[in-house]
Automatic annotation (TrEMBL):
Belongs to the carbon-nitrogen hydrolase superfamily. Nitrilase family. One of its GO terms (molecular function) is hydrolase activity. InterPro entries: C-N_Hydrolase, C-N_Hydrolase_sf, Nitrilases_CHs. This is Carbon-nitrogen hydrolase. It comes from Hyaloscypha hepaticicola.
Length: 352
C-alpha cells in the first residue's frame, strides 16, 4: 500500500439536470486530475445530475416539474453513466468517489442520495445510500440502509465517504472508524438554504447558516477523533446552474435571490489533528501551482498530498476503537442488509 499519494477534490458544478453532460464533465475532471498525478479523485454530493436546492425555497406544490426532471435524469447503479465513470477510473488507475442521485428499476420515481467509491480497477467498492435525507431532501430522496456502511480497501489506504448531514451522526461516523478508516470523505452541496435572506441576519428573524464553517467543524472533529485525513468536497453553484433552476421556477425572483445570496460551501483538506492542510490548484496551461487552503468561489480542483503514516501517532492518545474504548460498556451493531420493497419466494412444487 502506498503511504503517500495525491488526492484531488473537485469543486465543480454539474450541467444541471443533465445526467449525460454531467457524466461527461465528471470524466473530463477525472482525466485532468489523473494527468496531474492524482490517485484519488473526489466529487460532491449528488453531483449527477443535481442537488435539489429548489425544495428549500419553493413550496412542495410548486416543485413537481423539478421532481419529474430529477426522476428522469437520476442514474442507475448499473447504467451507462456509471459504467463510463468506472471505465475511466480503470483507464486512469484512480480511485473515484462520486455522489449521485440514484434511481432504481423497481419504481418509476424512487430515488436515493448515494455515494459510490470505485476502485482503480473499475470495480465498485462501496455503494452507499444516505441513511436519512436531511430536512427538505426528504421531498426527493428515500431513506437508505446500512449496506454501504463499509470502508473501501484500496492500494491508497482505507477510504470512506459520508454524505453531508451523516457527518453529524455519531454512530454513522463511528462505523467507519471501527473498520480502520484512514481517509474520510465528506461530500456537501454548494449551498444549504435555511432562510429567505441568506446573506444577512434578517432572514425571518433567523441568523444565516454559515455553510463552510459548519462543514469544517464537523470534518475537523471527525478527523481529530479518528486520527484520519479528511476531504471536504463541496459542489459549486455557477451562474448557469442558477439560470437553469430559475427557468423552471414558479417564483423565479425568490429562487434567484436565495441562491445568489446563500452562504457557499468550501472544498478543503484536514489532517489527523483536525487542522487545515494547505493544498494547491494547478494552472491548466502552465502547470504552475498556487498554494491555497480552500476552494469556495471558483470552480476547480484542489490537490493535497496525504501521508497515511501521519494517522498513527495520535492513536497513542485517543484510539477510540481500541485503547481508548470500553468495549465492555459500549456495543454498536450495524445491520448491513440491503433493503428491498418485497421478497418473492419461489412456489414449491407439490405432488409428483
Amino acid at each position: 500500500m502506498a503511504s503517500r499519494f495525491l488526492a484531488a477534490a473537485c469543486h465543480v458544478s454539474p450541467v444541471l439536470l443533465s445526467a449525460t453532460k454531467t457524466t461527461e464533465k465528471c470524466i473530463s475532471f477525472i482525466n485532468q486530475a489523473a494527468q496531474n498525478s492524482a490517485s484519488l479523485v473526489v466529487f460532491p454530493e449528488s453531483y449527477i445530475p443535481a442537488f435539489p436546492f429548489w425544495s428549500a425555497i419553493q413550496a412542495p406544490i410548486r416543485n413537481h416539474v423539478y421532481f419529474e426532471r430529477m426522476a428522469k435524469e437520476s442514474i442507475y447503479i448499473d447504467g451507462e453513466e456509471m459504467l463510463a465513470i468506472r471505465d475511466t477510473a480503470k483507464q486512469t488507475g484512480t480511485v473515484v468517489s462520486v455522489g449521485i442521485s440514484e434511481k432504481v428499476r423497481y419504481s418509476t420515481a424512487t430515488m436515493f442520495n448515494s455515494n459510490i467509491i470505485i476502485g482503480s480497477d473499475g470495480e465498485i467498492l462501496v455503494h452507499h445510500r444516505k441513511l436519512m435525507p436531511t430536512f427538505f431532501e426528504k421531498l426527493t430522496w428515500s431513506p437508505g440502509d446500512g449496506h454501504g456502511l463499509r470502508v473501501a480497501n484500496t492500494r491508497f489506504g482505507k477510504i470512506r465517504a459520508l454524505i453531508c448531514g451523516e457527518n453529524t451522526n455519531p454512530l454513522a461516523r463511528y462505523a467507519p472508524m471501527a473498520q480502520g478508516e484512514q481517509v474520510h470523505i465528506s461530500s456537501w452541496p454548494a449551498v444549504w438554504p435555511t432562510t429567505i435572506q441568506q446573506g444577512t441576519d434578517q432572514g425571518m428573524g433567523r441568523p444565516a447558516y454559515r455553510n463552510a464553517a459548519a462543514n469544517q467543524r464537523r470534518a475537523a472533529s471527525h478527523s481529530f477523533e479518528n486520527k484520519c485525513f479528511g476531504i471536504l468536497c463541496a459542489g459549486h453553484l455557477d451562474e448557469a446552474s442558477i439560470e437553469a433552476i430559475c427557468s423552471l421556477a414558479e417564483e423565479p425572483i425568490l429562487m434567484r435571490d436565495v441562491l445568489a445570496t446563500a452562504s457557499r460551501a468550501a472544498t478543503s483538506f484536514v489532517d489527523p489533528t483536525g487542522a487545515k492542510i494547505v493544498g494547491h490548484i494547478m494552472d491548466p496551461e502552465s502547470g504552475e501551482k498556487t498554494y491555497i487552503e480552500i476552494l469556495q468561489e471558483k470552480e476547480g480542483i484542489l490537490y493535497a498530498e496525504l501521508d497515511l503514516d501521519k494517522c498513527v501517532e495520535g492513536k497513542q492518545y485517543h484510539d477510540v476503537v481500541g485503547g481508548y474504548q470500553r468495549l465492555d460498556v459500549f456495543d454498536l451493531k450495524v445491520d448491513r442488509t440491503r433493503r428491498k420493497p418485497a421478497t418473492f419466494l419461489k412456489k414449491l412444487k407439490v405432488g409428483p
